[in-house]
Records
---
Amino acid sequence: MTTQTSAKSNFVRILIGLALSVLSGLMLTAAFAPYNMWALIFIAFLPLLIAQYRVMPAKLSSLTSAVFIGTWLYLYFGPSFFPGGIGIMLALPLIGFLLNLITQKGLRKFHEDTHYRWFILNGVTGWVGFEIIRTFIPGIATWGFVNYTLWEQTWLIQPVAIFSIYGLSLLIMFINYGLGQAALRLFDRRFQLDEVPSISPQSTRRWLIGIGTASLIWTGLSLVMYFSAPTNPETVRVAAVQPGITEVAFQNPDMDHQERYDIYEAKTREAAAQGAELIVWSELFLPFDPQEEFTTELQALAAETGAYLVLPYGVFEEDGLRNESIILNPNGEFSELYAKAHPVLFAGEPYGLNVGTFPVYDSEIGKLATMICYDGNYTDVTRKLAAQGAQIIVAPASDWAGIAEKQNLHLVFRAIETRTSIVNAEKAFDSVIVDPYGHILEETVSTEPTEAILVADVPLGSADTLYIQFGDVLGWVALAGMAFFTFFSGKLAEWEKRK
């Protein structure tokens, strides 16, 4: 082959490789909300793997992964996701592009040197290990975890109550990489673009059988758990009040304390008129501490309605913001306060005061607990509350239009993980009520400010899952695998060579 022909062939391979990488990015995006083409998540990585390990010239193989990540990060988060503007929206895909371009530079050579013996384990633990790493980057949370693509398939996701969302991510990635290895074998039988070591048919067959068996066990277990839900549970009528006001209290100086309280009182009466025993409002709706201002009025309102009132408020003090929530019972007694644990740092929200306690309130209608907004995007807060017996977790929230179609799915998984009902009252876009099996009982989702009162009878949760006891251990196992391949891939290649 002449140099000119070789260059032309490489150019075509680069174009096809990049196209396949973009295709994988599109498929992964389409699997997530708001598109919800959930079945694509099981094959979304296949075009990427064929591009990275066969089509793209070996020296440029990491470019495929970089393009894939950059495409997905841009499309998934999108121009409307970040309230910080175009700069941060472009920065994340660029960071993902550069990280993958650098870190995966020698990955194809490693797999060729080791005859693809570690291909599946390396790929799976790398992806899921990085998922748990992301939760320790302030403000990033669990956005974009592959398991979230299945949020509507409650019949399929019940085992996260045992194995966590990381267990489901592992299964999804094993399916992708198992099918990916089989696709590479089929590719080698049809095409021979480079000299590459053959992939063992016996190993591929064993992996496919093992992954298929694990998938059947997961699905069967999920169906058993799904149909084992109590048929006549004890319920509590709850209400999530969405006022339709886009500004939180301290962002709207033209609305004074009295006007805020008057809105609160009127809508609370509406919810109580529909039989609500527990009434939840949106994050930072009140601009005052209810134990210091309007205390008598709020106590009278609770007594009149006979309802437990969840009072979310924000108060600036010399040391910072108190973003807190407290429950007032019909007898006029206040619960312990809860302070938001996870601020939205990329939106400019500061760390709050009084953070670090996770109280559960033993009331006449059940064991109640509160978290606030972004706390539901992490797994730790609901787990700590459920470990203390919480049966209903209320979640005042303050979102923005760009995440309205992607936010409530987090609470589906928090409910299943802990077997608690969750009542999320958001200020204008995306309130939801979820039962302990992840069923959405009532929901409003809009990219335009909308006023709503959601009312539903929610079961008292059992808060008895194995996940509460063991937490995210499978995420840590994946991270350990990721670390192993990061630091010992050279040793594995040498061992293979000696063998």
---
Amino acid sequence: MKVYRFGVAAIMVAAMATSAVQAAPIESITATVTGEGTPLPPVLAKRMQAAVQTAADHIYVGKDTAEVSASTDAYRRVTADIINRILYGYTVDSMTITPGVNGQLAVTVKPYGPVVQQVDLQIDYGNLSPEARRMVDSDLGSVRSRIEQTVVGAPLDSVDWVTAIASRTVRDDLADVLPEFVPQISITPGAVTKVNLYLIPQGTVIRQGSSEIESSTLPGILFLSTKQSFDSYMASWEGVPVAFVARHERDILASVSDQLAKSRAVSRFGLVMTPDLLLGTDAVLRIKVDSSKYILRGDGYLDMGHTDRNVGFKAYTGVRQGRGELYLETVFYPQTYKWEFLPSYSYRVAPYTTLGYQYNVSDHFNRTWIRQDLGERFHLRAQRDWDIKHNEFGLAYDVHSYLTLEFVVDDDNQWLRLIGHL
């Protein structure tokens, strides 16, 4: 009797459990979308999956599993109708619904009508120069293939929402690889679909590009053609975002160095040409040119506020020996037609500090001096003429490679000196 009662109780519990399972609500449903015959474009498949998943959550989550099982056909029709609406250009080919606390929805779709067979991608660079375009192309990298992955295989009728997805995909991709430009995309459907990608610069752009040639050993006028060439090169970066050029600064300097290395003067005269970029709305390519063998340069100066020998021309000729320079400084004063000759030696004791000695053959006195560079354009000079007991100090500013302003102070006076570099 006890066994009988136990058996009845067990049957009742099992029945209740079965009833509970049948009446349990659907807590989650996993939707999958696949293409019938032809795989879906990868980028579209991800978006389609998300859209169908959202629809499935609204349709099934919270519904009773027994109700869904009993009305599978009705649910299939409703689900197919919704999917056909949200995936315009596609139609549901087959569907499998597996009710349960954690249900499953498997959907197979196929395009109706013709699909995109090929993509003709055209990139509108605006006013970018060929050099800038090459660097933009290197940044774009896989973006071209990503656009093709988005569009190829998509139904022609789905171009409207495919364009939105492609635009979002390109924008997300370029935010990482080309953040200095805002992309705009347009798609013209066809068997060969035309995709136009417009790149719009954003942020501060270069308004003017130029170059400067600096040399402490050779006349800058010798490199006039080089300057003109690189003036044109820097002008080609006008209209390009400053941030883009800054990000590619290493590549640009490497390209400039390659061009400079091809000059015959580099090997013939032992020249060392070092480029540097100063970036801003006015971008400057500064090229420092020095000979490892020879010194040949000239200056002319004009003093304002000083009457003694206030106009002069100087020529420096000599050789370089490591960090030292052995040269002859020749000075001509046109007002008095006087010449001075100063055999000289200078030595760079530190990257920004130079010591020098000179002997004035004409007036028979010894001179020592020190020059301290203060950054890129400022220089501090102090000199002592021992035999005539004369001290002179100067603070100079390089306006550009051909002009320097120097404020000079000696034992008796102070004045402004304009120095022109040949």
---
Amino acid sequence: MIGLFNLLIRGVKAIDWPLFLIAALLSGAGLLMMQSAVGGTDWRYAVQSQYFVFALIIMWVVAIVPPTWLAKMAPLIYGVSLILLVGVVFFGETSKGATRWVDLGFARIQPSEIMKIALPLLLAWYFQRREQRLMGFDFVVAFVLVAIPFLLIVRQPDLGTALLVGTGGLCAIYFAGLSFKLLVPLAVIAVVGISSVLLFEDTLCLPETDWLVLHEYQKGRVCTLLDPTQDPLGRGFHTIQSTIAVGSGGLYGRGYMEGTQGQLDFIPERTTDFIFAVFAEEFGLYGALTLLFLFALLIIRGLVIATRATDTFGRVLASSLSMVFFIYVFVNVGMVIGILPVVGVPLPFFSYGGTALVTLAVAVGLLMGISRQSVRSGANQ
């Protein structure tokens, strides 16, 4: 009995209360919107509620585990995640034209979601070990560690998740000490690429034009972003309907479960990728800005934890996880309002799905563990 009481006390002390409060508010809003998105009677609401309870337990467990122990486990976690990604190639299950899932018998998981945590963990561990003798070769090794899962996820194909994993890895490398000057060529390539697409849109979007580096459906998504009215009932349907929903919400919104686009099933994938459109229609501009403010607080809190970290592992991991949250929100919201291509990125704590939700809970738990280590270190000084 005393041991259980001590465990509970330890669990309470492990919680970073500002971070927990923000995550709780987002989770509550996410469940509220899931009920609206499914009409209040769909089985997915009950399942998502169970996912939230499980994710809360996972977050608490991860927050209790000492970061030093997790650092030692990082290579194993990355290795298992990589094996699961390879397993997708040979034994993966296909849904909606993509092979992204593996059935383990007791659960059906998406290994690419796990890699969003495994990769920053490994890179933080690696740079912690090399901090006293860090050289250029170490950054080359880090880029290879990022490239392997990135290419495996692109092959599924799942470009959206691959970009999340790759960008999260690059953020970890940058926070580990990569010179900003080395990122300038990547920025130049991105600007030139985007400018070329905008300038030569008429030619590049012709059916006979092959983009070589992208699948045909990925080319279609980019061209649809530029002009969704070219195929309003096909590829452009998602973008057109989501932007209509966001615009129809006005300043104050139509009211909870009163949105026409969402309740009449005009918004495709309204429980997953486009749930932000349902929220914006029902709560309007002010509600959407409030939600984005909560996400901003979550990211800022993560970066504050990173600045207070006592070692390289905590600093790199907390920084990269915070940026992963930023990328999630930026890409999903940008996709919904029509400024980014539709790439299938969920909205944290809102979109339906167990693996993604548990992954986010692990990320929050890791941030709490790093915060607890920093507080304990400060108290001992």
---
Amino acid sequence: MKYKLFMSDFDGTLKCPTADAVSKKNLQAIARYRAAGGTFVVCTGRMLSSILPVLRGLGISEGLVSAYQGATIADIATGKLLKDGAFEFDDALKTVRLFESLNQHVHVYTVDALYCNRDDEWLKGYEKVCGVKGTIRENLTCFIEETKLRVVKVLAIIDPADGETLRQKLTGLLGEKHYVTFSSPFMLEVTPACNTKGTAVKFLSDYYGVDFSEIAAIGDQLNDLPMLEVAGGKYTVADGDDRLKGFARVMPRCDEDAVAAAIEEILADK
């Protein structure tokens, strides 16, 4: 099999935002791929505490999962961390202070907790989708300073109309140590530049002993770009961000089982 490792984003790629669960067709394709000797890994921006119970509920109870845009990689069965990345303290503080100065709805993540500065409908929707609960701290900058919080990721809920302008502004202000990207049109995320989905590919390549050319990946948003840039097989969904379509093979829409289509193509090209 040409691609021994297949990495998939979760929301908007493996699972459709409008669906209650991952489709049966996608799950069957994953099972066939694994039965053929392939290794399947979900690589998501979600919290580890959000994605682990979901995967176990789908019957994916062994192997690894990558969370927080690649900052965290864990064993699904035990939850043991194999990779545990985070911001340097001053960099986290700088990021959160900047978001708050721009009057944004901000999420701050540790490896196992979520802190938010606003208790609103956006937060309620996020909590429902991800199955997590945020703790409100109106001044997150002060909270981080006082607690010396170890921050893994920072996210802001934004107006999509302002998204690209804001992304470029933050990229310039935060500098090369930070990676600023979208996980959806209304979610602007910041991680250390050393913790992206691209670095997750590199970690898994070393862990499983497979070359980049033997790894395939599929995603739908800009945060998936580093993963697709590194992987040998590059796939995206038809309803994803257009910036991924210039160099990735376009599969059907997410709600048309894009992951299954990519896997079936890989299995057919043994």
